[in-house]
Amino acid sequence: MPNNRSSAMPPEFTLNGELSALPHFLTSLAIGLLIGLERERSPGSRAGLRTFALVALFGTLAAMLSEKTSPWLLLGGLLVIGAMIIATYLRVKDDNADPGTTTVVALLICYGLGAAVWYHNETLAIMLAIITTVLLYFKAELHGITQKLSRRDLISMLQFAVLTFIILPVLPDQNFGPYDAINPYQIWLMVVLISGVSLAGYVALQLLGHPHGPVLGLLGGLVSSTATTLVYARRSVENQDFTHLAVVVILIANLTVLIRLAIVSAIASPTIIPLLLPVLGCGLALGSAVTVYWWRQLNHHNGVALPEIKNPTEIRTAAAFGGIYGIVLFFSAWLSDAAGSKGLYAVALLSGLTDVDAITLSSLRLFEMGKLSASEAVTAISLGILSNIGFKLGLICFIGTTLLAKHCISGMLATAAGIGLALLLLV
Description:
By secondary structure, the protein is mainly α. It has 18 helices and no strands. It has two domains: 4-137, no CATH class; 149-426, no CATH class. It is elongated and about 75 Å long.
């Protein structure tokens, strides 16, 4: 006979129905244990492994019950958790004790993550739990970073936030002018991109204090290879013993430009990378071979001087780059239409003298608009890089010492030769 009692039971009360929510609670338990494990190590914390695990479970339970009763239950649980932990800290009279603000916030986050798990956001909840644990664990390191950042560095970050989240959203995303070449939103987006890459190198330079020559060259190249070249060419004149270090810093800074352009191009126009990357890679390989030789000749130097580089996110600096980029973009489109590829290449050679970013982004923009072929865009970018290398060699010859020029010319010409050779073979 069939089991009528079993078949008559509602599905939600069967064994499978009861256990269907169990994976959500197990995930919440793991999240609570992860965050609680870190808090258990903190001597001033009033909540540890068990408390965080229970709070995460409570978050999932409150979310589940709020679906069946009232959404206010979930908010009420959050208020209860906050009130309980704050009351725990208020009972502690020791003025030197940890005020517990971080632990209170961590508990509230843990409760929220537990609720997020119930609403099928397990992956996001786990990622946020890991990020929370990392922030809690690296307290000393994060405090050390804030101590090293100067007022100027903080202003740089705020200015970048203004460029990205205030100016960019209000600009119109449509084409204007002849050839539809001017798009305010796209132009400023490229300003944000270049400023972001430069800011990363700028802040890293300030945080590291006095890094070794190769690291200094790498970060200097991210911020401004031209400024780095200029500063170290001057230093070689002031101190002859500084020459070998200046060579390494300058060569690595100029090789970093190729890496920087590869990153920027991959973001701005990923489809051109298969053709552009071999050109940049060949220049990087030949230039690196010579740079490694000079690196091995370099003795250990203490007291490496930081380059005097301008804040890359100043509104005036960003606006100047945006203006240059817009002008180069317009003339590239105009001369490309009027004089063909020769007109574009002339613009590349001229603009590359001072700023290789502008011609690179302009060429990529025209390629994306269908006004340039991939080979023409890669050729224009390569000519801009070669022109920029020639300009910086001129700076070294006129400002630096003769010895510095002799050492740098080998590495920079090797980079140029690699780019030129790859260009002839691929384009």
